[in-house]
Amino acid sequence: MNLLLTGAWRDAKKYIPLLEKHGHKVVFMQNEADALPCDPGWVEGAVCNGLFLSHNAESFSSLRYVQLTSAGYDRVSLEDFIRRGVTVNNARGVYSIPMAEHAVACVLYFFRHGKGFFEKQKQHLWQKDRDLRELCGSTVCIIGCGSVGTECAKRFSAFGCKVIGIDTESSQKQYYDRIDQIEETDRAISRADAVILTLPLTESTAGLADERFFGALKDGCVLVNIARGGIVCTDALIKALSERELYAALDVFEEEPLDEASPLWAMENVLVTPHNSFVSDKTADRLSELILKGLTGRTGGDTLEDSGSISQKQNRI
């Protein structure tokens, strides 16, 4: 296969000899927005992230295989690729563990008043806090029961939480007490002490967390968004956080980086992180293993779940 690799795969250069050994012809480009190092019609397979945001996908006339380095599909036009018979793989499972750990850490940050203790430490102030909350016995609603959502469910259930999933399919899965349909979102989140967003950004999920959504949350609820910023209506979020006892841990935003003038930066009930939940010391190796498995059949180290190939099917929550 004629392969175009981009710098979105950090270790791509390291594995070019192995890919060539397996019969692939490889061209590499560091920055996806740069001019292509080859004729687009030559490319049969690509390992990339935002390549098709900068280059017309239709010009890749021989394309039949795309391996994304992201868990989301929102940087490609799936319908167009499916129509053309192009198989598109995401990086399913690569980032799920650090994202789930991030979600748990964020809820604990608010439940255990992490910011308050840090401020007292800076003041050298020995002062107990008698208003802390336990995760055990809490209800956690996870919207999007794919790989990331299920890793979240696994961890929250280990803390003794009741875990409710929201998904397009309601079949029972391990670690969830139950899974409801997306139409039942308002009812499910109204009972939740924490709501975790892990669903993909699609036409149907864009703006899901709107004024009605926030109105359904009970006081004291913690919202964690590790999905995509476009799932949340920012104005409705800011209004809800300003008027009610709600908390939000936001790792993604409608526009990134977050504007310096955004009121979210200064809100006491908000934790802002710079789209960082997927980062860990193990994701690079997982990603390389996943890519190599798809291109060479080579496996090694920890076994990963399926890569989440989409060819003739639509993505699901």
Sketch the major β-sheet: 7 strands, parallel
What pattern of helices and strands is seen along the backbone? EHEEHEHEHHEHEEHEHEHEEHE
**Beta-strand percentage range:** 15-25%
List how many beta strands DSSP finds.
13
- Side-by-side strand order of the widest sheet: 8-7-6-9-10-11-12
> Which structural class best describes the helix and strand composition?
alpha/beta
CATH class of the largest domain: Alpha Beta
What is the approximate shape? elongated
Task: Please describe what this structure looks like.
The protein is an alpha/beta fold and 317 residues long. The chain contains 10 helices and 13 strands. The protein has helices at 12-21, 51-54, 78-84, 96-111, 114-122, 147-158, 185-189, 211-216, 234-243, 283-296, and strands spanning 2-6, 25-29, 45-48, 65-68, 87-89, 139-143, 162-167, 178-181, 194-197, 222-225, 247-250, 270-272, 309-310. The protein has a 7-stranded parallel β-sheet. A 6-stranded mixed β-sheet has the order 2-1-3-4-5-13, with helices on both faces. It is elongated and about 65 Å long.
